[in-house]
Each structure stands twice: as structure tokens, then as C-alpha cells.
Amino acid sequence: MRRRLSLLAGVATLGLTLAACGGGADNTPSDSSNAKDATGKVGVFTWWADGSEKAGLDALVKVFGTDFPNVTFDNLAVAGGAGSQAKSVLAAQLKAGNPPDSFQAHAGAELQDYIDADQLEDLSSFYKDNDLTAQFPKDLVDRLTVDGKIYSVPSNIHRANVVWANVEVLKAANVDPTKPAADLDAWFADMDKIKATGKIPLAVAGSWTQVQLFENILLSSLGTDGYNGLWDGKTDWKGADVTKAITAYEKALTYTNTDRDSLSDWAPATQLVQDGAAAYNVMGDWAEAKFAQDGDKPGVDYVYFPTPGTAGTFDFLADSFTLPKGAPNPAGAKAWLTTIGSAEGQTAFNKVKGSIPANTTAKTDDFSEYQKSAIKDFGQDKIVSSLAHGAAVPVAWLNDLSTAVSKFGGDKNVDGLQTSAAEIAAKFAK
Amino acid sequence: MLKRVKHWGPGVLLLAPTMILVGIFVYWLIIENFRVSLTNQHTAKPSNKYVGFENYSNLLADPNFQHSLWNLLILTIVFLGGTLIFGFLWAWILEQPAKGEGFFRSVYLFPMSISFIASGVVWRWLLSSLQTTQPGGERTTGLNRLLDSVGLGALQNDWWSDPTWGIAAIAVPAIWQLSGYVMALFLAGFRGIPDELREAARIDGCTEWKLYRHVIFPQLSPVMLSAVIIIGHMSLKLFDLIRAIVPDANTYDVQVPATLMWVKYIGSDYADAAAIGTILLVLVALVVIPYLMYTSRAEKR
């Protein structure tokens, strides 16, 4: 009995100690810190826990080790759920005033939440000190700038409007793999031919990949300006051209695999194309890393092209790193950000991850064929922000719209989706 | 004075740690959750303006939330009905004097020892919506493949991907998992009825049906009530099984309040998430509190 009592008392004390540990954020300004005198440990929070992402992070850490031998890298990666798991862990840490030294976030509107919550340091002077503004493309810097301030350093750029296709399946249906369709109607006509051969014309997976497909069709149907206008209020969600786009999305869904909701992530959908069960998959260019990993040859086994109707537009998303307020080691964090922004760091990281460097001075001679073409496109195309990856709208908006798109997958109610999308936009647009 | 302290002191000391811990981690958090649900904390930006019950009225008027409540109703009815029918049936069969009772009792009870997450991963595969007649049908797996290979291909269906009845498919693994538990409850109920009562009824000329109707069933009703309460409140809180079966939390077809709460929370809409949490708590309380009152009254008697 007595033993149990003391055990209980022990548990109680432990509970109280834990509760006491929770509070107390360090709010000293960190602007004075300098990457050059950085020492100690720098904790970096990401959701790059396995696959090509982990390999990329390892490559980056290696460069960091040579750049700043006095600083130890502390990997705080949280696996699972394509970042959603990590984001809830991070939200809890930030709320408790216990931030990591630097954390990963999609560049663009997703950062807005953290900025609004006053959780990020302004990095404008860091950009000036390292002359980063000149090294990053202007389009990108514009998208990172909020009220004249920059809050993150982008590490890599991905493109979300790419179609990956299986050459054999296309040939069997008499569709020329070297001449992709010019617009959605021509593309649907190709899909009809593929459907006739008994294959799945278009592979798609669960909710977020459907949102990505929806975004691609909006972009193709409305054009760059119309698409951008959806997020800043210049395009009317209730307009006839949006109706047309949603109708096109409805048509696209009829070509997809019926078990789309049960595919756990993007990879099983891309796998259908690799296996020759499906012809096309609209997917961000991280799919390239999967094709390469599985030994598929571009042009022979698979081809890629911008989603029909979006050639000349680069639907971008970027990962970026931040300096949270109250970081325990701000100098170390700046050292980390210096490596992230540097040409060497970006080359090492992106070569492995399959994305393209945000820093235009990074060496890309030995990058893959796809990466080179993406770099070229990024330099000359119009840039738009991705919806599904938090670049175009804040998380709450994306969440509500995802629900509406998911609902549409079941009821196919064009009017319903359009009305709710308009309501959501009215709720969040400023 | 000291004497009185000696009288109740040890008891209080013994209870204090649990009371403090439960007080902080259950009741204080419930209050805090309720407080957040009254604010306009809809984004990550801190805001503590009180808006009264506006979040609640907005939620109840929101078609998405209504849809999740409707789904919850279907889920609860199917889940309850399924577990009660199977649980009773198995208990009734095992109650007949037969060999191997211990073996079958374990077989039926075992699914309960598996966590919803683990069984959910298997059921995701079993409940795959692809059908053999559809394009790419050669990849069909799970129950649809099974039905096709035993010649019942016509029974293949979308399972949880069906926009209206999908949620009922989620109840299938839940029934599979908890019928054994309900069986155990009923079995205990059957065993609690003295043989003398049955013998007396038989001597009085009861048919088997009348025996069950007038002697056994009335004595099983407290067990039945316990089963309804336990399964009912599990159904209201069901989250992990749905998360394990359905890859994306934001899948509309199978949205219930618990998963919607998660979606809102991930989207930094803390006020709405807290309001859904409070609504769930009230729903569960509506089921559990009358039961607690009933049992405490019964104990007093």
C-alpha cells in the first residue's frame, strides 16, 4: 500500500514538473547573431524522413558540415503523412514557445499562418548580408515577400503541372507519346482512345492528389491570369469560365481509376503508370525521382510534358527554411540558412531530391535530363503558385476547398462545388 | 480536530494525486477546450475575442457538419445493430451445451485484442473499392476479389467509397472487432440466470420460445443496456479505425465529427475544432450519464 502511495506521489510530482517545463518562451531578439560565430547544436525540423528526401537532406548536412565545422546538425525530422503529422507536432512546439532552430515550410501562403502568429523572424537583413536577392529569381522572391519582408530561405523548387505517361500504353492506343495534346479537349480525346484499350486513362490517388488534378485543370482552363485571380479575388469563382473548368474536371474524373480514394499517397498512382495499368498521371516532379529510382528511362519507358493547356506556365511550389522567434541557437540557425541558400548546398540537395535549385548560381551540369528541362522552363515560363501544396492559399482555405473537391468526387455536383468554392473564397479572401 | 484529520486525512492523501491529475488533464482541459470554442481563434494568428456560441450555430448550420452527423448516425445504427445481433447469436449458440465452447469463445473474442489501427490497415486492403469489371480490374484485391472468385461477382461494391452508404462499410470491421465483446457480455448474462428458473418454466409447460420471451430476455435487458451504452459511445468517438482505413483525413464520404475535428485542427481552425470536441462530449454524455445514474440507483437498491 505504502509503495503504491509513493508511486502515485512520484507520478504526481512528475506531472507537475512536466507542466512547469511547458511554459517560458525566450523572446530575446536574435538579429544581432551572426552565422560566422555559430557554435553548438542546431536543431532542424523537417518531414524529410525517408526516400529521396532523406537522401537529399543527408547531402545537405554534409555540405553544412564543411561550411560550419563548429556547428553540429541535430535532425528533428518527423515522419509520416506527407508533412501533415510534422505540421501538427510543430504547431504544438511553437504554441508552447519551444521552437526548433529552423523548420521546413512550403514557401508562399502556407508561411502566412506562422507570420500572422508572429512566430517568425524577419530575414530581410540576412538576405542583404548574403546577397541572396540577386541569386534567387525575382518571381520567387516576390512570392516570398510579405509586406516588404522575407521570412524564409527556399531550398528547392518543384513543378506541379507535369503529366507522366507510359510510352507502351500510349503506343498501344495509337497515341503519339512524342506529341502531347495541346489542350484539354484533345487530351480527353486521347484518353478515349486509351479507355477503348481497357487501360485506365488517368491515374489519381486520394484527396490531395485530386486537389492537385483540379488545380491543373483550373490552370489549363482559365489560363495563368485567370488562375492567379482565383486567389486574389480578380477572377469570379461564380463565373461561366469556372463552370467550364469544373465540368472539365468532372470529365477528367470519369477517366480515373475508381479506387482513387483508397490509394494512400501519390506513389501508388504513379506506380500504376509505371506498371502499364494506367496511361497518364498528373503529378509534381518528385515523381521523376521515383521513375529514376525504379530504373525507368525517360523517352523509352515514360515521357513527361506540362499538363495540356499549361505549356509555358510553371506551377511552382518550394520548400523553405525559417528562423523562428525564440530559437535556442539563432546563430546556428543562420549558419544553416546560409548553407541552404548557398549554391553548393542547393546543388548537393537538389541533385539527389530531383527538384531544381532556387539559387540560379547553383551548378547543375550533372543534373538529370528532366531537371535540366525544368530549370530551363523555370527561367522562361510564367510562374504561378500551387494550390494543393500551400503556395497559393493558407492552410485553412486549402482544407475547406479540399473537402469540397473530395465531396465532388462522390456527388459530381458542378453547381455545388462552384458555390462552395465561391463561399470559401469569400470567407478567406482579404 | 486532529482526530478528525486522522479520520479522513489518509483517504484524501491517497486520492489527492489522482484527483489533481484528473483535474488538470481531464476537467481543466475540458474547460479550456470549451473556452477556446467560444473564441474566434480560426487561424494560427492568436485571437481571443469571445463570440459566444456563434461557432456552434455556424457549425450546426454548416452542411458539411450536418453531413458528418448524419454519417455518425448511420455508423452508430449499423455498428450497434451488427454487434448486438452477432454478439447475441454467438452467445446463444455457445450457451447450448456443446463441445469446444472455450475454443470458440476465444476465437470470437480475439479480434478485440487487436488495435483499431492495426486491423484498419488490413481492412483498408480488404475493403478496396476496385471491382473486377472496371478498367484495371485485374488489380482487384480484398473482399471484391474474394466475391468474384467464389462466383458472387455481382455483389462487388464500392465499400466505403460510396458517397451515401460508405460509412456503413466502416462499421463492418468495427462489428467484426467488437461482436465478440458483446458476446462475452451476453454469455455472462445467460450464465447469471439460474437453471431453476428455466426448469420451473419448463415444468409450467413453457415452450422454448415462450421460455426465452418471458423468462430469459427480461433478465438480459440490463446486459443489453450495457452493451448498447458501451458500443454506442465507442461509435460516437470512433476515429482511429476511420483514419487507418481511409488514407486521407479529408475524405468527404466518410467524414464523421471526430475526423472533421482533426481536419479543422490541422487547418489551425482551433475554435471550430474545439466546438466539435465539445459537441462530441455532449453527445457521449447524453449516452453515458443516464446509464451512470441508472447503475448507481440500481446499486443503491
From TrEMBL, chain A:
A Pfam family the protein falls into: SBP_bac_1
Matches recorded under SUPFAM superfamilies: Periplasmic binding protein-like II
Source species, domain of life: Bacteria
Signal peptide: 1-25
MF annotations from Gene Ontology: maltose binding
Keywords: Signal, Transport
GO cellular component term, pick one: ATP-binding cassette (ABC) transporter complex, substrate-binding subunit-containing
One biological process term in Gene Ontology: maltodextrin transmembrane transport
Family designation: Belongs to the bacterial solute-binding protein 1 family.
Protein name, as recorded: Sugar ABC transporter substrate-binding protein
Protein species of origin: Arthrobacter glacialis
UniProtKB/TrEMBL annotation, chain B:
InterPro entries per record: ABC_transporter_permease, MetI-like, MetI-like_sf
GO CC term (a single one): plasma membrane
Record field: transmembrane: 12-31, 69-94, 106-126, 165-190, 211-231, 273-294
Keywords: Cell membrane, Membrane, Transmembrane, Transmembrane helix, Transport
Stretches assigned to the ABC transmembrane type-1 domain: 69-291
Keyword Membrane set for record: yes
Location of the protein in the cell: Cell membrane
Entry annotated with the keyword Cell membrane: yes
Domain of life, source organism: Bacteria
Gene Ontology annotations of biological process type: transmembrane transport
Membrane topology: Multi-pass membrane protein
Matches recorded under Pfam families: BPD_transp_1
PANTHER family linked to this entry: ABC TRANSPORTER PERMEASE PROTEIN
Homology family: Belongs to the binding-protein-dependent transport system permease family.
Protein name as annotated: Sugar ABC transporter permease
Organism: Arthrobacter glacialis
